[in-house]
């Protein structure tokens, strides 16, 4: 079978540690080109993964290479532009999270994919974790009854220790990132909870703020490093979502879902990725998989899922439309933090 010709735009840490190695491991993929506005970053990835074509201009790369598919892993402010241009050149696109920096950009990405007849997938890899998939099955089965509440957290010590341009990383600059911890980590958990619960969030209240992070010159960064949100679903379930770049020395990527007849705890135990605690006192332990971290890389499955969708002509479940719904909640949380009010989310 002819291999899919894949190009990657953006050669930072996420490409070095996940997208490029996962592309090289997929037998149906030929990694034909890499691009980064910092040419040295693109050259480093090309050398490590034996990629022949190296660019610092993605428009030029798209026109000359004409790839079948593209991974967009740039700083956030370029997600929409790079995605739309790749779609218009006839490529399917896998775009990193957060999908884009405004709702209009997200919508334009979705509309362009439809117009061009190409797939747009957003890299919300937490949907692909085995324990998350298993938890969704348990919730849908009704075994534990109705979901009443939840708490979900994604926090670590910050991107500056992992980013390719550390210590003054683009993640800390509003013009490049638009969002801080909320857009970097919180967006993952919003998408995950939408997936697990199988319904939309309709109201949001949030504190989104900067508590600790500073630039190398000692000035506070101009994006958020902490967010705590209260979210309400269509069915009335309420829960908390926390995103933080100020959990030094540890990472918390856990979720607990409280139901009428028990609870599900995910990725809070070092051995058991899912624990069910029943109302009658019984417990069930599941040793399914481990949560990948910046320090401990495991295969995310995102590139394989993307390639499989293209080869089987199956629209991705983590579609641009899904990405837009997740981003609506992100924007609502920022609006709530700015206004001090509960924000209704309109779909």
TrEMBL record:
InterPro entries: Gfo/Idh/MocA-like_OxRdtase_N, Gfo/Idh/MocA_Oxidoreductases, GFO_IDH_MocA-like_dom, Glc-Fru_OxRdtase_bac, NAD(P)-bd_dom_sf. One of its GO terms (molecular function) is nucleotide binding. Transmembrane segments: none annotated. It comes from the Bacteria. Residues 133-264 form the GFO/IDH/MocA-like oxidoreductase domain. Signal peptide: none annotated. Residues 5-124 form the Gfo/Idh/MocA-like oxidoreductase N-terminal domain. This is Oxidoreductase domain protein. It comes from Caldicellulosiruptor kronotskyensis (strain DSM 18902 / VKM B-2412 / 2002).
């Amino acid at each position: 079978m002819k291999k899919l010709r894949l190009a990657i735009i953006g050669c930072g840490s996420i490409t070095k540690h996940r997208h490029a190695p996962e592309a090289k491991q997929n037998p149906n993929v030929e990694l034909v080109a890499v691009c980064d506005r910092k040419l040295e970053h693109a050259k480093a990835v090309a050398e490590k993964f034996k990629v022949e074509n190296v660019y610092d201009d993605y428009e030029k790369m798209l026109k000359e290479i004409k790839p079948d598919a593209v991974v967009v892993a740039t700083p956030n402010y370029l997600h929409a532009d790079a995605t739309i241009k790749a779609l218009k050149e006839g490529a399917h696109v896998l775009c990193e999270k957060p999908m884009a920096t405004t709702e209009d950009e997200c919508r334009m990405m979705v509309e362009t994919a439809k117009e061009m007849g190409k797939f747009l997938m957003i890299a919300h890899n937490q949907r692909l974790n085995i324990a998350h998939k298993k938890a969704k099955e348990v919730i849908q089965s009704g075994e534990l009854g109705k979901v009443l509440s939840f708490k979900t957290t994604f926090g670590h010590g910050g991107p500056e220790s992992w980013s390719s341009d550390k210590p003054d990383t683009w993640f800390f600059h509003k013009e490049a990132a638009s969002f801080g911890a909320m857009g970097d980590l919180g967006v993952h958990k919003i998408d995950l909870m939408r997936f697990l619960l199988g319904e939309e969030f309709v109201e949001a209240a949030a504190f989104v703020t900067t508590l600790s992070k500073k630039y190398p010159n000692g000035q506070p960064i101009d994006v958020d490093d902490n967010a705590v949100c209260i979210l309400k679903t269509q069915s009335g379930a309420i829960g908390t979502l926390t995103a933080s770049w100020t959990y030094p020395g540890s990472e918390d990527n856990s979720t607990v879902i409280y139901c009428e007849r028990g609870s599900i705890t995910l990725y809070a135990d070092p051995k058991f990725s899912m624990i069910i605690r029943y109302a009658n006192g019984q417990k069930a332990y599941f040793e399914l998989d481990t949560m990948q971290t910046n320090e401990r890389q495991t295969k995310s499955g995102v590139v394989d899922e993307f390639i499989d969708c293209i080869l089987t002509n199956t629209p991705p479940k983590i579609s641009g439309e899904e990405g837009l719904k997740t981003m609506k909640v992100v924007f609502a949380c920022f609006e709530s933090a700015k206004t001090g009010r509960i924000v209704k989310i309109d779909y």
